[in-house]
Amino acid sequence: MLGLGIQLASRDARVAQLHRQLQSIDGEAAIVAAAGDVRRLAFELLEDGESAARLTRAIADLNDALTARVLALAAQHHRLDDIRMCWLALGSEGRQEQTVHTDQDNAIVFVGGEAERARLLVFADSANRLLDRCGYRWCPGDIMARNPQWCLSLEEWQACFSDWIDSGKPQALLHGAIFFDFRGLWGDLGLARALREWLSAYIAPRPLFLRQMSQNLLQARPGANGWGRFQLQAVDGQPPDFDIKTAGAGQFSDVARILALSRGIPITATAARLSAWPAQAHEGDLAESWVEAFHMLQWFRLRRQLERHAAGRPLDNRIDPSRLSRFERRLLRAAFAELRGARHKLAVDYGLAF
């Protein structure tokens, strides 16, 4: 027991030491090198048997520190002191659930007009490019702060969100799954809080949009069906498998987002959203089981990334159940059974076919 305590303390000390180093690094070459240290430490922690919950939180904290330092370094070359602005983390970064296989999803909220936007876009472009050099891949959909579409004033974000919520168009539902997980990361964090408070107040009494989000989720196929049979798909000539992010952990995040928005819960992390959601005793039992299942799916996802890294192959989230032990397959089936229960909860709440 003493040995375990020393081991845990050692892990925490390594994370804390790197966190302190990130806060004082100067120069782009040094920050790019430090980003490599973050990834190496993440893989070392995973190899040491760190839990999915602790590991994703450690990665999130280090990514936050690194991103904040990148933004501070980029800001040194741009005059921003007279602009109220906040860098928003979106998607998995907004939920503090990034793994070592991730790309950029970010935006800016500010106070001002076109002159301020023009200056912020130049700053954002340099920051996005430096983050890309650090290993946070260029977003294929260009959901980045450098895109004028996602560098908006507080009033513009409110108008944008209200349009999505009121229209319920397919693209609005897709955007909501990314943007509604926003979190202020650097700058005037009060702007992010103001936007979150506005969103919570606006969306909770508009259940139609949440119903449409639920319907969209229920159309996605989970990794196992109601009989516990894995739902596999052959991709690019490879043996049949499934993506544990889109068919598992990501669907728990979707459920948690809808439940949190329906009750005006301002937090963004999936496990924290599920834990904060219960309003009745029986909901507490459900939430606890769903949190455990979500962490289990995240663990399988992280282990897959470790295996690919050790083999020197590109990271992905593909799981082939035939390569798992009988016990591991039972764990996966149990996690997917909990996901099925969470999906069923939304179907009942919003009167949807299940």
Short description:
This protein has 354 residues and is an alpha+beta fold. 62% of the residues lie in helices and 6% in strands.
Structural account:
This protein has 354 residues and is α+β, with helices and mostly antiparallel strands. It folds into 2 domains: 2-203, Beta Polymerase, domain 2; 207-349. Helix content is 62%, strand content 6%. It contains 13 helices and 6 strands. The strands form 2 sheets. The chain has a 4-stranded mixed beta sheet with strand order 3-2-1-4, with helices on both faces. A two-stranded antiparallel ribbon has the order 5-6. β2, α5 and β3 form a beta-alpha-beta unit. α9 packs antiparallel against α13 and α11 runs antiparallel to α12 (281-310). It is globular. Residues 1-9 have low confidence and may be disordered.
Keywords:
354 residues; alpha+beta; Beta Polymerase, domain 2; two-stranded antiparallel sheet; 13 helices; 6% strand; disordered N terminus
Distance between the termini: 46 Å
Give the overall silhouette: globular
**CATH class term of the largest domain:** Alpha Beta
Query: Which topology of the largest domain does CATH recognise?
Result: Beta Polymerase, domain 2
With strands numbered from the N-terminus, the spatial order across the biggest sheet is 3-2-1-4
**Could you give me the name of the CATH homologous superfamily of the largest domain?**
Beta Polymerase, domain 2
What count of domains describes the coordinates?
Answer: 2
Low-confidence stretches: 1-9
